[in-house]
Amino acid sequence: MQRSIESDFEDENEICYTSKRRAHPISQHYDEDSFPSSSWTNPNEHDIEEDQCSSSIDYYHNNNNDVGIDDEIFNLPISSNDLSVTPKQALHLATIYEFLRHFSSILRLSPFLFEHFCTSIIQSIDINNILFSQIHICLLRLLIKQDDDDSITYASETDIKGIIDLSFVTIDYITWPYILQLYVTSHPQLKIFISIVKDYPFNINIQEKIDLLLALCDVALTTKTIRREFDDTKPKQHDDNCRKCQKRGDLLCCDRCEATYHLACLNPPLTSVPTVEWFCPVCIQNQVHGV
């Protein structure tokens, strides 16, 4: 299998170019448990951008070398004593949680409490926690969609003719660990996690799960969808059509998102425009106390 990457860049004269990198075939092999895995080799590996997910990977490399680090230097409030994780792990989980919360609309991830997030990390050692699975599914959908937009494939050119990658549509609460393994073993920046994803998420300690989630969030930050959020400095533009009937007219704008509604389309209908902040039904439904 081959990984083909097409990317656009601009030089100092603002002239757009298209670059294409081609890697050697991915070799499939099977271990004693007959579980498929893959390795990704590239003769020009140094040409690949090394800044992607560098922070989490550097942390993963150096984590085992941190000798003599005292967890007492992380002074967390007393209210964090019920998190069931160490203070150091709580800070890294807070980093992941802030990323998921800030880009929840792009990831299509419903809001949740930080305490529930910490609990899902612990429970996923023995059971398939729904929240933990949904977080990985949303991240993988974003990354797979970005690979598809960048014309990245995981097969030879002769094998992909007339073939459609169904990973995006088939990923669910049962298949996501296998799709995660295929993605990690094929991604050049995530190869250090190959030994982790074999039995992921079961029988994996909390710290290894945190390291992998940090790396996935770092890779997600390099996607065009996320970068567009940073580069977009324009004010929020509301929809021109009602979210309920899809018609135009005098619309009431939500103060939190881009949604607009007719007064008569709301349940219950409104007779006048509110004089205070107004949130659409979707924002109210996704509003979680403490988030």
TrEMBL record:
Domain of life assignment: Eukaryota
InterPro entries according to UniProt: BPTF, DDT_dom, WHIM1_dom, Zinc_finger_PHD-type_CS, Znf_FYVE_PHD, Znf_PHD, Znf_PHD-finger, Znf_RING/FYVE/PHD
Gene Ontology terms, MF aspect: RNA polymerase II cis-regulatory region sequence-specific DNA binding; zinc ion binding
Gene3D superfamilies cross-referenced by the UniProt entry: Zinc/RING finger domain, C3HC4 (zinc finger)
Gene Ontology, cellular component aspect: NURF complex
Biological process annotations from GO: regulation of transcription by RNA polymerase II
Annotated region described as Disordered, given as residue ranges: 27-47
Location of this chain's protein in the cell: Nucleus
Annotated PHD-type domain residues: 239-286
PANTHER family reported in the protein's UniProt record: NUCLEOSOME-REMODELING FACTOR SUBUNIT BPTF (PTHR45975:SF2)
The protein, known as: PHD-type domain-containing protein
Source species taxonomy: Eukaryota, Metazoa, Spiralia, Gnathifera, Rotifera
